[in-house]
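Lecture 7 notes: from sequence to structure.
We start with the chain below.
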Amino acid sequence: MKKFLYLAAACLLAACNGGDEPEQQPSLEVKPLQLDFAAADAAPQEITVTAVGVEWEYILSGGASEWVTVDDSREGVLTVSVADNPAQERRTASLAVNPQGNIKVKPRSVTIAQAGNDTPVVYSLTVEPAALTFEPENAPAQEVKVTTEGEGLMWSTEVEEVARGWITVTERDGGFTVVVADNPGQAPRSGNITVVPDSEAASPKVVRVTQQELVLPPSLDIALNNGASPEEGFVLDYRGQTDGDYNILVTAVNVEWRVSVRYESGTDEGWIKANAIDFDDDTRVSIVGGIENESPEPRVGWVVVSSDAEGVGSYEVKVTQEGKPDFISTLEEDVDFGQFTKSRIIVSPNDDWRHDEVTAWEIMCWDEGVEFIENPPFPEQPRFEGTGGRISFMLITEVLEKNDDNVYTRQYQRRRRRDLPAPHMAALRMVRPHGERRSQRRGLYPERYYDRDEYR
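Predicted structure tokens for the same chain:
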């Protein structure tokens, strides 16, 4: 609030003297500079503000407005009143009177002091209990009793922000009720409820709320990644190879588990490898084969997933390995291809860089409805077009090596061509450089082959 003080007499005198008197400088004075009040039933006191040529305002120090009241209804006078001091300690406040619009005029300050109370009023509160513990699920509500000391002392509750999602407080006379939501996690959680008094003379109190973790009963479950049941299990081919990855997904809760392998009585062992693997998002048992079954009969084993808890688990996952077939073919039944009229043979004999123990012959036959298309950059990768019958198979023979003439030779008993089927006739045709004559050695039929030569 801004105040002005005009000195009428001084103005009249200056006018009468025709300006002979010197002009008064702006100024600001306050009296007294300190007010002292009794602890209780203190009478109001006045501060006189004398201002010349300057506007002013007063400001009460922060927090003092709770017990200091200032009445500025009279011109140039501030009337100060204080509330009773309930505390034993002396308390003080500051009232500043500041000039406005003139930096040359110094501000003034008045100290307001009030004596401590010889018989102070004690404000306090207590909570009982100071800590609450709840079950993880379906926990009943619990009560907290709040006891206050000191006339008119009020209080309120505040739940800390991180716990507001699961702690609910309902206030009532003399205390409050606490309810918690179910704890879905497997770890305990806690939060604070603060009981805040409305007077600084009393200290706030904290109630600690703890909720126990959800303890799940021990359990062990498995699932096969191929969608089969444990009784159906996994199937390995006779070479021990799998159709993709074979995994047993393991879900274990509050239980330790292990994996082992057992085999059908009287059969070979060691052909199943079961490895437990822990990933960030799952735990699994990886099934690995890799050992060939030399027997034509299939063999069976089981991967056993068990736990250390009584009554939890175990599971047995069947693993079957097929027997070794007498021959390997994609044809599982008789197929009538009719009459083949064309053939193509590719042979891979040993040379300076190939040192195989056998020689492979790739034989292809087809009929008139199929067209063979050359592929010069890659002669071993021809194309076939059309509609008709075509068959491809591979023969393995004794190794073909170079002789002293630097040609590939293999000797065997000669047979008449008309006694051989068409594919064999193609295979037995002698290939030689142009102009070279066939050997006439009796009983022997030397044939010459060239690396990756093609026969039609």
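Points to note: The longest strand covers residues 91-100. The chain has four domains: 8-114, 124-211, 219-321, 342-455.
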